[in-house]
Design goal:
alpha/beta, Dihydrodipicolinate Reductase, domain 2, 2 domains, eight-stranded mixed β-sheet, six-stranded parallel β-sheet, globular
Length: 361
């Protein structure tokens, strides 16, 4: 049985603990670490974890671990992942995995020097319907992809940002583009493949934060698909929506924080009823696109000797998309894939040259 630990026992850690329990005898949660001893003790008691530690270093020194789940605030993700890689311990890191594209490249370099791997938590890739959609796209069942839209319209009031690390470039790396919409457009990218160019805007409409509270992008993909991406924390009727208009069918999902097959709708083009039949060939699944699915895929990869999904190379595509969105929004220019390199101010920080509203604070 593999041995897992969790670094950081805030709210998201419970989802990781549940996913590990669901994996049964494949893996055991043996320890947690948190700088807040009281919080760590309460979490361990609630989740049935035998040991707690004040930090990752102490935990790595005392435990023989196969994987560490990094569930801390974003600014700690890269330092903790690097420490795990140096100890040859696999890492499953919460989103965003890093604060910048440059930090992702640091992780890639460290991974190459380690026997362990880093995987990013993008759990919506692993719901049964998304897996089926990517397979049907690869098999050509849906035909060419023409148009797509991706909306993450959520609501976070002022109280949400009272947590000190929220709403800052230094601690969170960005606003809803970085920390909220990332799940939906990562799924979009996993379906449509490489993106080619972005035209974007970002604004701070209502929240007293350093980062944006809304962003919008028009995206052209390498395969020719055009898409819109909207990320908001100002939307009282919350929804997460993806729509793909293919040659032979429209495929849509609307949910909030996780979907099942019941949230997906396939509308065939005239004369293409067989496409909907193909979608329905598989038994409908009630499985939610949560951490449980990704942890199972993570363990499957370890069992087969492969790099666990989502790899750092996959992650880099999504993080480059974010950097390009901010670059386009803050400079007013169209940004192409591959344009954000070490000489770009948006490589070392998503803030880049600075948000247009920075001087208004």
């Amino acid at each position: 049985m593999r041995r897992a630990a969790i670094a950081g026992t805030g709210a998201i850690a419970a989802a990781h603990a549940e996913a590990l329990r669901a994996a049964g005898e494949r893996i055991e949660l043996v320890a947690v670490a948190d700088v807040d001893a009281g919080r760590a003790a309460a979490f361990a008691a609630e989740q049935g974890v035998p040991r707690t530690y004040p930090g990752l270093s102490e935990m790595l020194a005392a435990e023989s671990l196969d994987v560490v789940h990094v569930c801390t605030p974003p600014r700690h993700h890269v330092p903790l992942a690097l420490e795990c890689l140096a100890a040859d311990v696999h890492v499953l890191v919460e989103k965003p995995p890093a604060l910048s594209l440059g930090e992702v490249d640091v992780l890639i370099a460290a991974e190459r020097a380690s026997s362990a791997s880093v995987a990013t938590v993008f759990q919506h890739r692993f719901g049964p319907a998304a897996v089926r959609l990517r397979r049907l796209v690869a098999e050509g069942v849906l035909g060419r992809s023409f148009v797509a839209k991706c909306d993450t319209l959520w609501y976070r009031g002022d109280a949400y940002f009272e947590v000190p690390w929220r709403g800052t470039w230094q601690s969170e790396g960005g606003g809803p583009t970085m920390g909220h919409g990332i799940h939906q457009f990562d799924l979009l990218l996993s379906v449509l493949g490489p993106w080619r160019e972005i035209r974007a805007l970002a604004a701070r409409q209502a929240r007293d934060v350093q980062t944006e509270d809304v962003s919008m992008a028009l995206v052209t993909f390498a395969g020719g698909t055009v898409a819109s991406v909207v990320n908001s924390l100002l939307s009282p009727r919350e929804t997460s929506e993806l729509r793909f208009d293919f040659e032979r069918a429209t495929v849509e999902v609307e949910h909030l924080y996780g979907y099942t097959d019941a949230h997906w709708v396939v509308t065939p083009a005239p004369g293409q009823d067989d496409v909907a039949a193909r979608w329905r060939q598989e038994q409908p699944s009630g499985v939610v696109s949560g951490h449980r699915c990704q942890v199972a895929a993570f363990l499957d990869a370890l069992d087969s000797g492969e790099k666990p999904p989502v790899t750092l190379e996959d992650t880099r595509t999504t993080m480059e998309f974010i950097a390009a969105l901010y670059a386009s929004a803050f400079t007013g220019a169209v940004v192409e894939a591959g344009e954000i390199g070490p000489d770009s101010p948006f490589y070392a920080s998503m803030e880049g040259i600075g948000a247009p509203w920075a001087n208004a604070r």
